[in-house]
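Q: For a teaching session next week I want to show students how multiple molecules come together into a single three-dimensional assembly. I've collected the sequence lines for a complex. Could you give me the predicted structure tokens for the whole thing so I can convert them for display?
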Amino acid sequence: MENAAIQLKNLTKKFGSVIANDNVSLEIRRGEILALLGENGSGKTTLMNMLSGIYYPDGGQIFVDGKEVIIGSPKEAFDLGIGMIHQHFKLVDVLTAAENMVLGIKENGRLNTKTIGDKMKKICEQYGFNVDPDKKIYDMSVSEKQTVEIVKMLYRGADVLILDEPTAVLTPQETTKLFAILRNMKKDGKSVVIITHKLNEVMELSDRVSVLRKGVHVGDFNTSETNPQELTNLMVGHAVTLNIERTKCENPVKRLEIKNLCCVNDDGVKVLDDINFEAYSGEVLGIAGISGCGQKELLEGIAGLQKVSGSIEFYPPDGSEKKELNGKSPKEIIKCGIALSFVPEDRLGMGLIGNMDLADNMMLRSYNKGKSPFADRKTPAKLAEKVVDELEVVTPGINVPVRNLSGGNVQKILVGREIASDPSVLMSAYAVRGLDINTSYTIYNLMNEQKNNGCAVIYVGEDLDVLVELCDRILVLCGGKVSGIVDGRTTTKEEVGLLMTSLGGGKEDNL
Amino acid sequence: MDTLLNFIVAAVLAATPLLFGAIGEILTEKSGNLNLGVEGMMFMGGVAGLAGTYYYEKAVVEPNAVVSIIIGVVCAFLCAMFGAFIYSFLTITLRANQNVTGLALTTFGTGFGNFFGEIMGNAAGGYVSVGTVIKAAFDEGIPVLKDIPVIGKLFFDYNFMVYLALALTIILAYFLTKTKTGLNLRAVGENPATADAVGINVTLYKYLATCIGGGISGLGGLYIVMNSANGTGGVWVHNSISGYGWLAVAIVIFATWSPLKAVICSLIIGSLSVIPYYYQIPFIHSAIYEIFPYIATVAVLIMMIFRKKKSNLPPASLGLAYFREER
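A: Of course. Below is the structure for the complete assembly, covering every listed component.
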């Protein structure tokens, strides 16, 4: 096709047995803004990383201006005029903006910050940026840093700009400004690719949109000829029936009441913004959201691991007076019967210690019980045997270091231990991450069992099909805010998907 | 007045090997490599420099001072650089743990220095020592200028290595802040992934900075062995470096990775180590004085914990191996 700046043909990338991109073909044209839309883990970033030289494709071809090229490093991508702005900015903190511009440019000799500053000013005027060349990066706000990154790419002569979730860290005003700049660049004949999962941005900014789902390229549209609903359906795919057993809630009693919960992270960004909800005994409350929307902070906040403001009220099952959990230490919160099993990406990160054996890992919860100065190893060993037995953990024995077990078995032990502590609130995040179907069902059943026993289960999940089938209610987070709470029995995957990608299901912005 | 003058001169002489060690380590650490083998590289530089000058002296009838200086410096630099190269290969190419590798280099270098020092001594029948010409070459100040009263003694009566150390410091400071190559090097130490993304050869920069830095540190060893400020010049003394390398590492932190500040910090530590010979307080035992530099170091390191200014922080990726495909 004429006018195509870059064409990708059948690009494939595998990480171990996981296929991140499966035969993806798409093209980026000159003077257009292309939106690359997809859920988390759909392979958007991986695809663009191959274009920018971070990853090397396992198969397929890349054409720049009609010529096939091999991009082996970020440097080679630069030389082809491809610049990518990552979510984590590639800037050197202790240097000034001007110094960051010239890093790595093959020129020896004295550093002349004035000429660099002049050239920067020219670029800024052309596209409408506002950057102080002599400001150190560590003194800058996130939006300023992003601007420096974009200016850096232009300074180095990029014709194709790839932005990975550029608005994730910006305020609405800053976003408007960024969009204006991107439109200026488009007018100048540059190609812009934005990786995003926000539908309203796609509709507002882009000329064309390509949708990825689970590594597969599922559609290309001219933005003017499509609508958010169509895009959402493509993004989340068709509903799959899973037949997870969902029992009725038996006399739900309020367990947790969260009021005005807010959390600000180290970068000063509000990751939780005025969260309000209640969790009842005997129900599974699902939490859905694109990853990084505050799920982790929310759970950690309740467990006392993260500093939050607002109130977390706990209603003990014995009917005694409610307790305020915010401000209590994690240990006190555990004593109240609140268990957190968080399965991070690397599975072992939180909750289990890889080098310790099964029994010792069980002991992490109970080492403090009893009066004797000597550790009681018999009870945890018994518990470990029980967990192995009941959850069908495949292991040579309970004296094997946890890290030697396969991922699924590690997760079973983690969830099993949390359940064994007989919690009144069980929080579980990504409990089935990377598990096969059967093991997943074991874990769903475990959670259902807890629910029937009158425990309030909070389940953070990634798979919408599961959330819709398993949960009684689903709380949807979007950018640190509650975008809606829906009934799990009546909602659809599409509804949840729409809530995840835009606040209030996009009804407010009328897209 | 005389005591003060002598004290200042002695402090400068004591500070110089520390300065060599510190600026070499600053160059190394700016690339993100924490090389704790400074002590070892000083041993290696010291013994190699001594060997070079000693065998040069034996080979010619009338040794020339300038030639012996060049041979000494080159031998010391190359040998210490070899130590740094081993470290680089292990930590950069094989991505071994930098702390462990650095400590191993210290142990290795100490053994290396003492082993060859003793061997040379045994071969020479007791101990190895260079003649007066070479000794003088490493001790004497600038002719004519040094004879000016007071000023001559204060500024021009040092051996050439003092001026070499200062020159290297100024060159390093200029290189790091005012040149593009220096900028690239700082980027490598701060954020290698970023440096890589803009096309800087991270591996090459790390290798060069670590090896050249190691060579410079090794000159500190040469100074300790060859200079007779501490009584024995041009002689191999068992365990002669005795902790100077570690003080140099501490000075790097003290100086907040700035070569120019390292001059002042070396002077402070250097003067503390010679103070008992010039100003004695009667009721303090002389052994207590010996530990002054170390007490000061500990105090400084504790103070450093409380610094807040971002520009005073160590290079952000210090101590971490860089691997492109790791996220």
